[in-house]
Amino acid sequence: MAIAKAERLMNLALCLLGTRRPLSKRELRESIEAYLEAGSDDSFNRMFERDKDDLRELGLVIETVENLDGEVGYLARRDSNSLPPITLDAEEAAALGLAAKVWQQARLAGAASGALQKLRAAGLPEDVDPYEAHGALEPRIPVHEAAFEPLMLACRDRRPVVFEYRKATAARPEPRHVEPWALECWRGHWYLAGFDRDRGAERVFRLSRITGKVRSRGAAFTADVPDVVTVRETVASWAGETADRSALIRLRSGAGYPLRAKASLVRELGDGWDELEIPYGHGLDAWLVEFGPDVVVLEPAELRADVVDRLRAVAKG
Q: Which pTM value belongs to this model?
């Protein structure tokens, strides 16, 4: 239904932009297939009025003109609907190319290609290839999660969603009812920030832990969407990136390389174990649980207790 409406709006916009004289409702109905399929005149009139209002809300300037016979016609003059010149430098083109690669991996290659073609027509320099890497290392943002596309569309359309989510410390996934705000990639993983209706608070979800299909809900948002959604800062806080203390852990030799990369001190203990001093912030207990029996928390005591509690919850299922 959403695709059919978008196609109908596009056809109406093209008709209004392409005409040199005002077109009547009768002429528009005969020119657009979706209007021909309308069951009755009343159904067509309601559909046309909604579509006209939607196009005006999107920014299209539609004029209403009455001819000598009193018949009302509509047109959208090109000079009233032209965009200002668009100029992009090499860095901006590279950013668009990177975004297009994300869209391609998310099965939106057609939309990405069309958008770049329009930018070409609007002034993107011909000697700038937005798909080409501008350096020795080519930036990539992987998109492998099936939840990416439906969540991206839900964020755009402001539609609540329902999905099954498995926390790092849980044995089985649980249903979550979320008002999605924004998606962001951080350290190679995609995260969704939104309002968790069941918990009545803002939450961040890692897309790789979403199982099954993401289902949309028609109900409107109940919480205000922040002007700036700080996905990366929130995830960093939960991951202990904003730590102001240190924790002492034992780590099995040859394991836990992400922990080793964060460690400020590493000592070999022998017998297949090392001792690490790592930053300690909010959410570190959940992260340590992911390493299972390869990690033993030595101090502080409250971190050790939190990790033990999480492990017991997992064991209980």
A: 0.44
